[in-house]
Design a protein that fits this description.
By secondary structure, this protein is α+β, with helices and mostly antiparallel strands. Helices cover 40% and strands 23% of the residues. It has 3 domains: 169 residues, no CATH class; 89 residues, no CATH class; 121 residues. The protein has 9 helices and 22 strands. The strands form 7 sheets. A 5-stranded antiparallel β-sheet has the order 1-18-3-12-13, with no helix packed on it. The protein has a 4-stranded antiparallel β-sheet with strand order 8-9-4-11, with helices on one face. A hairpin with a 4-residue loop joins β8 and β9.
């Protein structure tokens, strides 16, 4: 059998390769339509994926309008936020109160006596640190329950290395070293990491020289030491009633409200002379009120989410009579049904509110192009009755199915469900794509088979023509020879 590379050579005039190629191309012509169909199906799958994402966004927006927390927004204001800041949890009842700050929360600060020379050895033994509470007058210490932390001090330890050991122990006390090159001396400075009366600490030593009350050996760390600041709670009054907190944040003092003391607001008076040392800023007035701005933002987000879907669906299903161009999904009945279902949902009626029953009542109207439009003034007026707007959107309670947003949520949930619209549509389009792929494979297989048969037949013809050509040449030569012999 002649090979493809030699097709047409024998005959000298029959281009078998070109003939077969053209015939195979004709055999593959159905692929053009199939490939176009596959591209269209892929585009539809992508389009429905986009629409599904937009419906999911609408579902989330509707959920915020059915959630209790979405309607419990409150605003909190302080008349002097540099002195007292405040915040309130959603659902906190409107209230107001006055806060005066007498003292901020403090951490204990302590310094050892002067230690000489800088970098010198201190002696050996153990350091003991206990957390607890000091009573200032008379001074006494009540340790917390638990085992004190003990640190071994060796002959090679200096003030700096002892500070490192304290910091490395992470025991609620930090250490640093204060040096004075002029006197070649240093001090060990300690400070608690927490504030409040119960965040105090006590440093003691077990000196290997047998004495813990002198200025020799390791005892020097406690002999002559002083507490420059005792751990203390923040002190304030709320409407004149004294309150206390171990930090500057008061989170359980007023129900639902957290306020933070940032500075002392009362006059600081010299107890000896009665003179005012620091003039305070005076009480801060804290006000908690309902905040409808978050609700309005949620409604605006809902309207935008709906309009985004409507815009995509309208573009995909339109027909331009002027250009005679149809949208990708024009004529797709399931898409039209989806569009109608969403429009019906946003026009649903609720009987849970005695004032508002539908979106139009609060200034949200459906336009001719299918988009929703918000009358801001009317919506703002409706939000003066937030409980009525809430009832219209979410019903009377969490189990209600009557609210407008609840009904929209139900529609979107059904569309997005495992057996919903988008799952069914995607499965249908995927089957079409699979069928198209199978059809393309069949066309290619049939064309390959035809190519083999055509190559075989035209190769045989080419071989036959080659033989006839050789015979013709031979006969011609014989005739010429005969003519010469006859002459």
């Amino acid at each position: 059998m002649a090979t493809i590379s030699s097709l047409g050579v024998g005959s000298g005039g029959l281009d078998v390769k070109s003939i077969v190629s053209q015939l195979v191309t004709l055999e593959k012509r159905p692929l053009d339509a199939l490939k176009l169909q596959a591209t269209t199906v892929q585009t539809k799958i992508s389009a429905f994926g986009q629409i599904k994402s937009l419906v999911s966004t609408l579902s989330d927006a509707a959920s915020k309008l059915t959630s209790v927390t979405g309607w419990n927004g409150v605003s909190t204001m302080s008349s002097n936020s540099t002195a007292v800041s405040a915040s309130a949890a959603g659902g906190t009842l409107p209230t107001s109160f006055s806060v005066s700050v007498q003292g901020l929360a403090k951490a204990q600060a302590q310094a050892s006596g002067v230690l000489m020379p800088i970098g010198g050895m201190l002696g050996t033994g153990k350091l003991r640190l206990e957390l607890g509470q000091w009573s200032v007058s008379p001074a006494s210490f009540t340790p917390r329950s638990g085992t004190p932390v003990e640190l071994d001090v060796t002959a090679e330890d200096t003030v700096a290395s002892i500070a490192s050991k304290i910091n490395g122990a992470s025991i609620g006390v930090t250490a640093t070293v204060l040096t004075d090159p002029a006197t070649n001396s240093e001090r060990l400075l300690l400070k608690g990491t927490g504030t409040g009366q119960s965040a105090g600490f006590r440093l003691s030593v077990e000196d290997d020289d047998g004495s813990t009350g002198d200025d020799a050996g390791l005892s020097r760390l406690v002999d002559g030491s002083m507490i420059s600041q005792y751990a203390a709670n923040a002190q304030a009054t709320v409407n004149g009633i004294a309150v206390s907190s171990d930090t500057n944040t008061f989170s359980n003092t007023v129900a639902g409200v957290t306020f933070k003391a940032l500075m002392v607001t009362e006059d600081v008076v010299d107890p000896a002379t009665g003179n005012v040392l620091v003039r305070g800023s005076g009480p801060s007035e804290i006000t908690v009120a309902k905040d409808t701005s978050a609700v309005q933002q949620n409604i605006d987000a809902f309207v935008k989410a709906y309009n985004d879907i409507n815009g995509v669906l309208s573009e995909a299903t339109k027909y331009d009579a002027g250009t005679k161009a149809a949208g990708l999904l024009q004529g797709d009945s399931t898409t039209v049904s989806l569009q109608n279902a969403l429009r019906t949902a946003v026009q649903s009626v609720s009987s849970s509110s005695s004032v508002f029953t539908r979106l139009t009542d609060i200034g949200i109207t459906l336009q001719r192009d299918g988009n929703l439009e918000v009358n801001t003034a009317k919506l703002s007026q409706a939000l003066d009755q937030p409980d009525q707007v809430k009832a219209m959107f979410r019903g009377v309670d969490v189990m209600s199915s009557d609210g407008v947003a609840v009904k929209i949520k139900a529609v979107t949930a059904a569309l997005l469900g495992n057996e919903g619209f988008f799952k069914t549509k995607n499965d249908s389009l995927q089957r079409m794509l699979d069928s198209n792929t199978a059809n393309q494979s069949r066309v290619n297989a049939r064309a390959a088979n035809v190519e083999v048969q055509l190559n075989r037949r035209y190769s045989a013809l080419d071989s036959k023509l080659s033989s006839l050509s050789a015979l013709s040449a031979y006969v011609g030569q014989q005739v010429t020879t005969w003519n010469k012999s006859s002459g």
